[in-house]
């Protein structure tokens, strides 16, 4: 696995998953069924905001996949952030599906809170290719989705899931959970 550092807040891990694994995840997500995605606000509620986000999403737990993903990610040099170290992933996996014209406008991600831990990195895995558009835009640069590549970035980094122009885009979305370094001793 090769790591590409786009800047001090954003990096890509190439080929975190094999194309066959990505196809399995797409099939699993489709079996659970997609629905219109909401937007999580500061009050932690889900609101339909199609002017901001109009893609589809499905959320479910898969301990096997969470463990598999974490075992791959922990082999990467994940950054220490504000005296905190990466310790795992949340239980739930979120999958995004974008049809032509769908996007997630420019925004910053917030932390995921679970079991007394808080996330600090967004973790995306691109599950397919064969569509037009759909880049992840960070204003100064864009990341073109490649099957199996993982994109990680500090939550408060401005980014956009650019509109898909043709085809269907699938992505797995999770977070990297962090704990204070002193609690790991």
From TrEMBL:
<keyword id="KW-0560">Oxidoreductase</keyword>
<protein>
    <submittedName>
        <fullName>2OG-Fe(II) oxygenase</fullName>
    </submittedName>
</protein>
<keyword id="KW-0223">Dioxygenase</keyword>
<dbReference type="InterPro" id="IPR044862">
    <property type="entry name" value="Pro_4_hyd_alph_FE2OG_OXY"/>
</dbReference>
<keyword id="KW-0479">Metal-binding</keyword>
<dbReference type="Pfam" id="PF13640">
    <property type="entry name" value="2OG-FeII_Oxy_3"/>
</dbReference>
<dbReference type="InterPro" id="IPR006620">
    <property type="entry name" value="Pro_4_hyd_alph"/>
</dbReference>
<keyword id="KW-0408">Iron</keyword>
<feature type="domain" description="Prolyl 4-hydroxylase alpha subunit">
    <location>
        <begin position="8"/>
        <end position="177"/>
    </location>
</feature>
<dbReference type="InterPro" id="IPR045054">
    <property type="entry name" value="P4HA-like"/>
</dbReference>
């Amino acid at each position: 696995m090769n790591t590409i550092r786009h800047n001090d807040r954003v990096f890509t891990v190439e080929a975190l998953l094999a194309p066959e694994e990505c196809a399995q995840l797409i099939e699993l997500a489709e079996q659970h069924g997609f629905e219109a995605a909401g937007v999580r606000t500061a009050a932690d509620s889900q609101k339909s905001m199609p002017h901001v986000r109009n893609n589809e999403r499905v959320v479910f737990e898969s301990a096997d996949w969470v463990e598999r993903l974490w075992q791959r990610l922990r082999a990467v040099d994940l950054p220490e952030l504000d005296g905190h170290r990466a310790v795992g992933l949340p239980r739930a996996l979120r999958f995004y599906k974008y049809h032509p014209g769908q996007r997630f406008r420019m925004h910053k991600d917030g932390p995921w809170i679970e079991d007394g831990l808080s996330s600090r990195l967004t973790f995306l895995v691109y599950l397919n290719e064969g569509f037009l558009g759909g880049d992840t835009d960070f204003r100064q640069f864009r990341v073109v989705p490649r099957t199996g590549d993982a994109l990680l970035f500090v939550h408060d980094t401005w980014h956009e899931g650019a509109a898909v122009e043709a085809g269907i885009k699938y992505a797995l979305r999770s977070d990297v959970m962090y704990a204070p370094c002193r609690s790991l001793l």
